Each structure stands twice: as C-alpha cells, then as structure tokens.
Amino acid sequence: VHHSSLTPEQLISCIMHAEPPEIYLMEDLKRPFTEARMMMSLTKLANKELFFMISWAKKIPGFVELSLTYQMHQLESCWLDVLMLGLMWRSIDHPGKLIFSADLKLNREEGNCVKGIVIIFDKLLAATTRFRELNLQREEYVCLKAMILLNSNICSTSPEMAEDLESRGKLQLLLDSVTDALVWAISKQGLSFQLQSARLAHLLMLLSDIRHVSGKGMKHLSDMKNNNIVQVSDLLLEMLTNGS
Amino acid sequence: TSLKEKHKILHRLLQNSTSPVDLA
Fold first, then answer.
1. Cis peptide before A95 (omega within 30 of 0)
2. Which residue has the higher pLDDT, B3 or A18?
3. Residues in chain B closer than 8 A to A54 (CB atoms)
4. Beta A104-107 vs A97-101: how paired, if at all?
5. Looking at the partner chain, which of B3, B19, B24 has a beta carbon nearest the beta carbon of A69?
C-alpha cells in the first residue's frame, strides 16, 4: 500500500512498527564517574542508536522513495534531535532523571563530571518536564519524531537538492501526511477544538527547543572530540562532521 | 561523488537492503 493512500491511523500504525527496540549500553559505567568514561559511554550509546535510527528512517512510509541525497541530508540534519526526543520519551516517567538506556540512568548532578554538559542536561530535563506536563501520548511522540526527520532540512539552500524537485515535492507531501496523523492523534483525546489547536501548537513549539539543545549538544561533542577527551566511532564521527 | 565520499557509512547503510543494524 502506498503511503499516500494510508489513513492517519494506518500511517501511525506503520510509524509505531518502525520504532527501534530498547537499547542497552551492556557495560557498567564505573563510579566515580570521570569525564572520559561518561563521554565514552554516551557516545557509544549514540553510535548504537544511530544504526537503529537509520533502520527506523527506512521504515517510515515514503522515506526510501526520496533520492539518496535527500535521505542522507535529512538524517545528517536531524540525528541528534531524534536521539534527544527519544531520550525525553524514555525519561518522561522519571522526574529528574535522564534515561539514556535501560542500564544508563543519570541525574543532573552526575553530569557535573563532564565540563559543559550540565547545562545541556538541564535543558533536556526541562523539555522532558514540559512533555510530562502535556501528558505526551505515544502516538503523538512517534509523529513528532517522524516530523523532525522530515522537517529537518526543508529550508536547505543546497543547489543539488533545490533542483531535485521530485524529492522536494515528495518530502512535503510526506510531512503533510504525518502532520495530519498528529492532528488525528490529538483529535482522539476528546478535547475542544480550541484546546486541540493549543495542544498542537505546544507540541510543535517544543521541537524548536529540541533543535536548540541539539545544536548545543553538537558543539559540545565536537569540542570534546577536538580536545581528545573522547574518541568518536566512525558513523558518529561522520554524522557529527557532516551534520554540523 | 563528493557527497557520497563524505557520507561513506551513511550512504552504504541507506543503499544496502540489509538492515543497518545487521550491518553494524
């Protein structure tokens, strides 16, 4: 079935099935934490998650119909936003904690060992709190994550991409479909029309906060790598270098 | 070509029909 003929409910069902599995660091982060150990654990997890993210993107209906150039640009533009939204979703029922994985749960004080990371932890915790206050639903979460992927590079100035009108059109249609799905997910909640609009606005506004934190995160990770505090694995290095 | 060169791993993972997770 082509994605354009899917109902919002069917589209959400497909996006739900694309969700990555729960991930594990699979090793103990030894205490007391050190800057190098914590950064190594966080980047190791991020690298694992990147493989799952690419697999996830390929399962979003219509994504693989975009040109390879578009697929690469979308992923390199949004990967840290997607990782951060996933982190917020995992942490939503754990006030004050960031659930990086089932076996790596950190509070803000534990971030003190890494120079400059507490301010990022605080922003992540604040956005997570906002999602908790809004009682973010799983269907809304998966739509928001797909929207990050599809919207991440919509204002690209790359001539190569501007000329690829076919992919550009497909991308816009896909984004419209996921937006419809999000509107549908909100409409199921029995809210007044006015409250539905307000909820949609509140959820979408949080995406700009996530964009802001991911920019800080990219800068922080680049600095850590450039100062040789952490070694970054191949895929993560490629995404960091090309995405920033 | 330069884009593909810059994105060697991502390009391979997207192009390959095998799941990226299995290729990891």
1. no
2. A18
3. 10, 13-14, 20
4. antiparallel
5. B3
Q: A101: helix, coil or strand?
A: strand
End-to-end alpha carbon distance in chain A: 36
Q: What is the pLDDT of residue A157?
A: 67
pLDDT of A99 strictly over 70: yes
* Tokens of residue B10, six digits: 């991502």
Is residue B22 scored above 70 in pLDDT? no
* Joined tokens for residue A242: 């090309």
Q: Among partner residues A75, A160, A238, which is closest to B8 by beta-carbon distance?
A: A238
Mutate one of A238, A239, A241 to test the B interface: name it (highest B CB count within 10 A): A238
Rounded CA-CA distance A198/A210 in Å is: 19
For testing contact with chain A, the best of B2, B9, B12 (most A CBs within 10 A): B9
Short-list A51, A83, A59, A239, CA closest to A148: A83
Whether residue B20 lies within 8 A of chain A, CB to CB, comes out as: yes
Average pLDDT estimate for A164-185: 94
Q: What is the pLDDT of residue B4?
A: 64
Q: Compute the average pLDDT of residues A164-173.
A: 90
In terms of average pLDDT, the best of A71-75, A213-217, B6-10, B18-22 is A213-217
Judge: A54–B14 Cβ closer than 8 Å, yes or no: yes
> What is the ipTM for the molecules in this complex?
0.86
Q: Is B11 helix (H, G, I), strand (E, B) or coil?
A: helix
**Amino acid at position A147, single letter:** M
Residue of A51, A79, A242 best to disrupt the B interface, most CBs of B under 10 A: A51
Give the H/E segment covering residue A104: strand A104-107
Task: Answer yes or no: are the C-beta atoms of A151 and A50 closer than 8 Å.
Answer: no
